[in-house]
Amino acid sequence: MVSPAIALAFLPMILTLIIRYRYYFVLFYRAVLVRWVQDCLTGISREERAFQYILTHATPGNPDSILDTFDYWCSKVEFISNIGPKKGLILDRLLKETCPLTVLELGTHCGYSAVRIARSLPVGARLYSVEMDQRNAQVAEKIIRLAGFDDDTVELIVQPSDEVIPRLREDYGVERLDFVFMDHWKRCYLPDLQLLEGSGLLGEGSIILADNVIFPGAPNFLRHARRSGLYELRVHRATLEYIRGIRDGMAELVFLGLK
Ligand SMILES: C[S@@+](CC[C@H](N)C(=O)[O-])C[C@H]1O[C@@H](n2cnc3c(N)ncnc32)[C@H](O)[C@@H]1O
């Protein structure tokens, strides 16, 4: 048995840890515990629950309404790691400034960022969105189509990114990528960036925007972006989607061309 005196001595340290890491506890509670309980209670996936909420609360054919409803669900009901409304504004602004014609997204999940990207694209532009998880992709397909975007505007590719990137030219007729949004597993950021460099699809001025480079973090990717001499790098500071108090950031890389 631990004596009460020893337990009391540890109390300040435990309290300090709880206060210091409270936002991470909130994240664990919302992303893991609530999800597990709801999975057991409903028997359907979190992604499917999100879709059902959106289907019954948002206006079909209205991307703004789909995104607002999704944001509400993620802040008040359950957590999904969409880019979210605050970092979404950085994405919106860059898309408006650059007017890309061909966009590649790595990591579609439920299609939140795909809808966000598609609504900012100029007429005639195309988004290729890559998702390797079949069940996530099924939900994403429904959300993207519910928002009113057809296959000509958003093409969903259900395959791992490292298999898709080398085949973009041959299988999808892509000549150049104007904008790449990376939001898949962080360990894939650097290898996929190097695949993109080798593909010849990046041109001078192509933009790569990578989410979550501070939390969970992508240090090797940032190091390469900084030291390779291939990019102009800027990190946009932000906080993690739908949770206050956890610092995060997005890296914006402007490709300078191969030397
Ligand atoms: C953070 S979520 C994407 C969120 C989405 N971009 C949004 O903001 O709405 C990450 C997704 O990337 C997918 N993913 C992870 N690694 C991948 C890879 N190598 N290729 C394709 N999809 C991948 C996961 O299955 C997951 O659905």
Automatic annotation (TrEMBL):
GO CC, alphabetical: endoplasmic reticulum
A biological-process GO annotation: methylation
Pfam families according to UniProt: Methyltransf_3 (PF01596)
InterPro entries per record: SAM-dependent_MTases_sf, SAM_O-MeTrfase
Stored CDD domains: AdoMet_MTases (cd02440)
Any GO MF annotation of the entry: catechol O-methyltransferase activity
Superkingdom: Eukaryota
Enzyme Commission code: 2.1.1.6
Keyword Transferase: yes
Top-tier EC class: transferase
Residues that span the membrane, as ranges: 6-25
Subcellular location: Endoplasmic reticulum
Keywords of the record: Catecholamine metabolism, Endoplasmic reticulum, Hearing, Membrane, Methyltransferase, Neurotransmitter degradation, S-adenosyl-L-methionine, Transferase, Transmembrane, Transmembrane helix
Reactions the enzyme catalyzes: a catechol + S-adenosyl-L-methionine = a guaiacol + S-adenosyl-L-homocysteine + H(+)
Family: Belongs to the class I-like SAM-binding methyltransferase superfamily. Cation-dependent O-methyltransferase family.
Protein name from the UniProt record: catechol O-methyltransferase
The species this protein was found in: Chanos chanos (Milkfish)
The organism's taxonomic lineage, starting at the top: Eukaryota, Metazoa, Chordata, Craniata, Vertebrata
